[in-house]
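Hi R.,

Here's the chain you asked about this morning:
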Amino acid sequence: MDRRRFERLRRGRLDPEARLDLHGMTLERAHGALTGFVLGAQASGLRLVLVITGKGREGDPLTPHRRGALRHAVPHWLAAPPLAGRVLQVAPAHFRHGGGGAYYIYLRRNR
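And the predicted structure, written out as tokens:
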């Protein structure tokens, strides 16, 4: 992504061509949904998509599990096969598009 386009993206001035909301999904279901969404978006020729993960629930600070499991897992899933070769860049979304609970995903062109 060139610098000018990245700055427009960072400032929330580019609108995503498609969006996926993973709220309320289990990790297993969300992983499948994300994989299908990214593969389908790239096959359709889309370049910029938005994935909404949510920020995670606020709860008891003494609980042993991590809050925001989807928010932490999505970047790892995008960096692993079969999505790694299809994703050019992952960036946190602008406040207008979900802020810390969403990611912009910039996809490679179809070949």
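The two ends are 17 Å apart (CA to CA).

Let me know if you need anything else.
M.
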